[in-house]
Amino acid sequence: MDLNNQQESIQRKRTFLETMTGDQQTNRSTPTVQQAVPVIPEHERKSYPTGLTDAQWQQIVPLLPPAEPKGRQDGVGLREVLDAILYIAGDRYDWRSFPHDLPPLSTVYSYFRQWRLDGTWQKMLDALHLNVNLYKANYRFLMTWQKMLDALPPEEYEANGHEELPAATPGNAVSGEPVSNGHIPERDDVHDQEFRPFAPFRHALSASKILTRRQAAVLSTIILGCGLGLLFYALKQSMIPFTVLLISLVFFAQSIFSLYLMLYSWEHPERLEASRGPCSFLPPQLSFTALLPARHEEAVIYETIKRVWAANYPSDLLEIAVICHIDDTGTIAEAQRAIREIGSSRVRVETFCTPPINKPHGLNVGFQRTSNQVVTIFDAEDDMDSNIFNVVNTVMLEEKVGILQAGVQLMNFRDHWFAIHNCMEYFFWFKSRLHFHAKVGMIPLGGNTVFFRRDLIERIGGWDEHCLTEDAEIGLRLSGLGEPIRVIYDKQHISREETPPTVASFIRQRTRWQQGFLQVLRKGSWLALPRLSQRLLAVFTLSYPFLQAFLTLLWLPAIIAVLWLKLPIVVVMISFLPLYALFLQFLFTVVGAFTFTSAYGFAFPLFMLISMTITFLPYQFLLGISALRAIYRELHQMHNWEKTEHAGAHRKPKIVSFNSQTAIDAATYDQEVAIR
Predict the structure, then answer these.
(1) For 143, 256, 286, 345, which has the most beta carbons within 10 A of its beta carbon?
(2) Number of folded domains that form the chain
(3) How far is CA 183 from CA 127, 277, 629, in A?
(4) Chain-centre distance of CA 651, in angstroms?
């Protein structure tokens, strides 16, 4: 950026802040309203353009909680605290130049954190919904504060008893950075209208609100001691109670952690905000290669090609490669039919004749025969969002990330008895769990709607052609490079897919995934991850087939042990802990189903609740059968690719014509999605 552009940007920011906060030159020495706490002696100081007006302060005062009778925050005027928060959120100063006439930074953050926990900050946002500067502070403060703490001497940081802050990266939805022209975009979702079923419990169950770190450590020690005592007690009785107790505790811990991953994004509002894509886009700049590996997909490939080409993005920045084995004449014929109607040399079929005949081999072939800057993968049945390339172009340019995983969602939840549970797995995986993986820095990527900078794929040597979950495996290798991975999930920008058409097809698909996880675990790509927390999360994720298979085999012996063996009452009670966790998982799945159907405009009738109640355990049994089958196949070195059939059950009415002068209207396309 040259000097003139820098001066222009600075002036634009200054004008914007002054416009949104109003006339800030009012004398602040005699506040109209004061909170009932001791305040700093009144003094004259200059006004800051980010501060509150008197009218805004009068609106906020009734919303502030009463001051604590004791504590380090006494003696500070709350208006000064708010002005300090807004000052920091302006992101124009660092901690070393923080004015002496504002409260200390440690006190400012202490108030900010408490107000976020008890809901006071949200009340302020609701009261001043037109004050974009205050809205901006809500998400930008965390990022700016983290920058300050990075520069703060460690002894000063620890001396003030600060707790770890939620991670925030520059340019993401958490930071509230301007999207395109230096102004904060006007958003329809400033007051998040998304259904948040877990919000009422978040503050009440927050250990950080109830316990200090020392108290939490003492309580953890007591719980650990009690657990060890119970183990030794059971060991003295006999090995059977000890074994039952140990297995129950292990599976209970695994279940509780899985529940945490399911609900991770709902724990804090900023996580939901960060998971969304941008609401306005930068001008198209990056060029994209869309790889469409296909095997016997003549039923769906024709329409998929046309939908990708019809995206709202300049055609000269797109290229599409459909990759097929040379013997797949049906898919090739359908692909060529779509290409003839499109009439562009930038869409073509690439064939190969060498083994193995599988998706990762096709991806490597397509990658070598294309050249654009960003490479993405779509499955043959995908209905991608028409603005997905604009989303990725904006995020990659603004946030400087090289990998982006967009959401994938199964949609035909009414078609089969197991479909709603399958849809909920995708819903929780892409909306919540992957964001936890991204934060830790260990993420098993999805198989489609994932975007890579070309140089990163070249750096790691492409996809593993002998792995059944090449997507998860390449994600681990990229995580080992320390490359940040951005995850986006919102209903506007997902790719829609269908559930497997039969139970047998579902078991084959899930077997392939589980066996692929075992392959990656055995291969050891996760050992290259730099941090212990990343390696532990990788082992937990990749070894899950073992846990699921073992749990499936354990059901009958566990019931016999509880009903027929004379076990101590304590052991019997603890042995039911995994069932309690499973029941909680069922409840959250039902709430998630209601959230999912509400978000996408579907009804959630009573029969759906009854059906989910009846089929929840049978669905878990299907997962267990798939895990057992995966272990069997891996032990017998059966690595053939079991394909999942696709019929396009998730799709809207087909597009019957297309040429180079016409395209699918994006608004009509979105209306069709909403109607369905």
Answers:
(1) 143
(2) 2
(3) 22, 17, 55
(4) 25
**614 and 562 in one domain?**
yes
pLDDT for the residue numbered 27:
37
Please tell me what DSSP assigns to residue 354: S
In a domain, 421, yes or no: yes
Query: Is residue 94 within 8 Å of 147, Cβ to Cβ?
Result: yes
- What does the alpha-carbon distance between residue 582 and residue 259 come to, in Å, rounded to a whole number? 9
Residues 226 and 83 in one domain: no
Of 165, 189, 222, the residue that ends a domain is: 165
Could you tell me if 545 and 630 are in contact, meaning their C-beta atoms sit under 8 angstroms apart?
A: yes
Read off the tokens for 25.
């030159």
- Distance of alpha carbon 452 from alpha carbon 461, whole angstroms: 13
My answer on whether 147 and 206 are in the same domain is no
Residue 245 amino acid letter: L
Residue with tokens 């043959």: 380
Q: Are 130 and 49 within one domain?
A: yes
Q: Any residues with CB less than 8 A from the CB of 611 and at least 6 apart, and which?
A: 417, 420
Residue 281: inside a domain: no
Same domain, 147 and 263: no
Is 158 in the same domain as 40?
A: yes
Domain that holds residue 433: 171-177+198-274+403-455+463-645
Distance separating alpha carbons of residues 231 and 224, to the nearest angstrom: 11
Measuring CA to CA, how many Å separate 4 from each of 120, 282, 353, 423, 525? 42, 21, 56, 52, 48
By DSSP bridging, strand 318-325 and strand 403-406 are: unpaired
User: Coil, helix or strand for 288?
Assistant: strand
Q: What is the DSSP string of 215-274?
A: HHHHHHHHHHHHHHHHHHHHHHH-HHHHHHHHHHHHHHHHHHHHHHHHHHHHHSHHHHHH
Burial bucket for residue 150 (CB in 10 Å: 0-12, 13-18, 19+):
exposed
Closest CA to 473 of 509, 526, 432, 436: 526
Does a structural domain hold residue 315? no
Identify the three-state secondary structure at position 406: strand
Question: What is the three-class DSSP state of 383?
Answer: strand
For residues 78 and 130, state if they share a domain: yes
Distances (CA, A) of 160 to 104, 152, 163, 548: 11, 11, 9, 45
pLDDT means per 10 residues, the chain with 676 residues, are: 47 42 38 37 56 74 67 59 74 56 75 75 63 48 45 42 39 34 35 42 43 65 70 61 77 88 84 83 96 94 95 96 95 96 95 93 96 95 93 94 94 93 95 92 93 95 93 94 90 91 93 93 89 92 83 71 70 79 91 93 92 94 91 90 76 43 39 37
Alpha-carbon dihedral sign for residues 185, 190, 194, 197: positive
Counting Cβ atoms within 10 Å, is residue 523 exposed (0-12), middle (13-18) or buried (19+)? middle
Enumerate residues 6+ apart whose C-beta is below 8 A from 313. 284, 288, 389, 390, 393
What is the Cβ-side half-sphere exposure of residue 644, based on CA atoms within 13 angstroms? 23
659 found inside a domain? no
- Contact call for residues 376 and 319 (beta carbons, < 8 A): no
The reported pLDDT for the residue numbered 593 is 95
496's enclosing H/E stretch is strand 495-497
Domain end among 165, 187, 206? 165
